[in-house]
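1st attempt posting a full record on here, be nice pls
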Amino acid sequence: IKPRFRKSFCITSHPIGCEYNVYNQIYYVKKRNLFLKEGPKKVLIIGSSSGFGLASNIVTTFGFEAKTIGVFHGEKNYFQNYSNEGWYNIAALNKFSKILGLYSKNINCDA
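the predicted structure (as tokens):
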């Protein structure tokens, strides 16, 4: 994936970089071990693929071990083999939640 810039912003995202970012956030939550059994058990997160939504998704899934459903809009570009960072973030989140046996479903849709 070649970086493409629009002014000072990079408009391409790298899947390994996004996965590494999600892994670091999960590691931080698990390492702190601040969350016990008190907390939400079922959570709906709207805008779950980046920013506060992704952070909420990670904390509730991996911190509280709540069952989460996330709604996001991320595009997979099948013709040019790249996607936006939200799509890669959710792919990584699903990968790690499956490895740890946690329930995390994410719905890709456009309002």
